[in-house]
Amino acid sequence: MNKDFDFSDFLLQFYSRSEWRRPKVILNNLIGRRTVSNLFWGMQYGLLPFFDLFPKLNNENFDHFQKKFKQDGFIEVQDKEVRLTDTGKLRKETNLSKNFQFQFKGIGLYTNIETIKDCLNLTVQIISEFAFKNNRYYPLQYSGRVMNFCKRWFRQNKSPELPNKFQQELSEFLKTLDNKSADAFVASFVGHNSFGLTDHQIKTDLSLNSFEWKIIDLALMTEFIWWASDDNSQTHPLCQNLVTPWLADSPLSMSSEVTYQLFLNNFSIEKIAQKRHIKVNTVREHLLEAAILIKDFPFQSFLSAPLPTNLHNYLQNNPVLQWQFSVVNELVPEFSFFEFRLLQIREDRTQK
């Protein structure tokens, strides 16, 4: 990876030369702010695979990059939207392949990577000290949830064979990586008389800058999470039990998942609202989230009727992102915004 690839280059990948885009949408997706609007536009901008990867990114730091982009002539600004200049487009294209070599696959919609990383680090330390029969050590300090979970996991799996079994499982995962990546993955582990390397030491050893190591670290943890949570594998039950309790079964929020399951069980929107004591518009928001995130969402349940000719012609003659609900509403007053958004999502899926 090129030494010059940094967070600003990562951000540029989500801007366009041909479209005006909202930086706030980019920030909200990277920090995991889940609303239907953020998810919809995140889908359009190619952000969903990277959802919630940088939860600690704040407005001040993000605004710094926007100002720097403008100073460097990479973007032009119009109201609250921005567009790449020719210079910015060239910079983006120079680094495009470096960014998207990482397969995050929307991991942030299912879990928090840092939480599982903390959990793995603490578990490695606990097992290492246990192997040396040492119970007088200072454990790594994480959140109360992580500390309590790891203690409970250790009590449930404690046995003389635990250290060897856990080592064998981790070795199986490391075999799926190249040697350089495998060494990097375990480099920070703390154990008995082993203090692990800092992020600074690891990135120096690998000749990377801070951001390059950060995104590689996230990518390696993502690979571990998908590997450990594979339901079809019986080779790593310890790692599976360590990871899966932190993983949601669905990319949907908990409330949206409840609504979606009721819908799949033939409850109407009105009946769902009544049963759950929520507003009809809230049910529609939940279903739009499902339409965005669930691959086999049944669009035909809402969009089965043929479109009126005037509406069909308007949609056919304009790109999806240029569709205007105000125009659609004039053409077909009974066509709801809910149906309009579903149509946009379905069309986006069809085109991809």
How is the largest sheet built, in terms of strand order?
Answer: 1-2
Order of helices and strands: HHHHEEHHHHHHHHHHHHHH
Low-confidence stretches: none
Give the end-to-end Cα distance, rounded to a whole number of Å. Answer: 28 Å
| Number of contiguous helices | 18
- Rg from C-alpha positions? 24 Å
The count of DSSP E runs of length 2 or more, i.e. the number of strands, is: 2
What portion of residues is helical?
Answer: 55-70%
Mean of all residue-level pLDDT scores: 94
How many domains is the backbone divided into?
4
Pfam family, one: HTH_40
Domain Helicase Helix-turn-helix: 256-343
Protein name: Helicase Helix-turn-helix domain-containing protein
InterPro entries: Helicase_HTH
Architecture overview:
Helix content is 57%, strand content 2%. It has 352 residues and is mainly alpha-helical. The protein folds into four domains: 7-101, Arc Repressor Mutant, subunit A (Orthogonal Bundle), CATH 1.10.10; 113-246, no CATH class; 250-297; 304-352, no CATH class. A two-stranded antiparallel ribbon has the order 1-2. Helix 2 (23-30) packs across helix 3. The two termini are 28 Å apart.
Summarize the entry for a quick read.
With 352 residues, the chain is mainly α. It contains 18 helices and 2 strands. Helix 6 (113-131) packs across helix 7.
Write the layout of secondary structure elements.
Elements: H1 7-12, H2 23-30, H3 36-45, H4 59-71, E1 75-78, E2 81-84, H5 86-99, H6 113-131, H7 144-157, H8 162-174, H9 179-186, H10 199-205, H11 210-228, H12 237-243, H13 254-264, H14 269-276, H15 280-293, H16 309-316, H17 325-331, H18 337-351
Antiparallel strand pairs: 1-2
Helix pairs in contact: 2-3, 3-15, 6-7, 6-11, 10-11, 13-15, 14-15, 15-18
Pfam families: HTH_40 (PF14493)
InterPro entries: Helicase_HTH (IPR029491)
Organism: Pediococcus damnosus
